[in-house]
# Entry
Amino acid sequence: MRVKLENPTMLSKAIDIISELVTEVRLKVNEFGMSITAIDPANVAMISFKLPRSGFSEFEVGEESLGINLDNLKRILKRCNAGSGLIIEKQENLLNIQIYDRIKRSFNLSLIEIDSEEKEMPNLEFSSRVELTSLDLIDSIEDCAVVADACSFIIEEGKFIIEAKSLNSARSEFSGDEANIDAENCRARYSLEYLQKFVKGAKLCEKTILNFANDHPLKIEFKSQFMELNFILAPRVETED
# Structure
């Protein structure tokens, strides 16, 4: 296996985000590209990352499933500078990672055994789909985190509302002018600890897609021409004060 990225920034940022949720993953490489699917240790969140074959300038692979420690990979990828290129090559039980700009630098990353079963993203059905500007989502989640540890996603009379309540409260409201809303009336509550980690992915693309339903898991989609990063988050089904 040998792959080459002319601009590894997207891969580096995605691995940085994923490593906040899981530490060990299977990195799958096949004819379609590079991908990761994993569940966090608490079984609350699921992550799916895809970097298509078209994003690579060289792509010589068979079918690989590589056990990777993400903290170690993250540290290596952070050594890339603006304008650096990246070559990843499997050599027996190692990944040889070459960063080239003014000089060529080389790292060897030991592959590890992953005991857990391979995961696939579930095929869930949702009653509501909201597409909004990524910066608006980031602001709304951070507003809610100021006052509570969970927030509600609400569809009400054609509007999308992100709301958190404890002793204090925060609320962001979107009409069809600010977001693309294709949804039925519903309400679901989610952990802000996880949402704050997820929305770091919003910095990778201009738009974010939210899929949810009444007391149902949330699917967040970040998509660009060069990558796809999705999260599924279990709801908090509990009575609000």
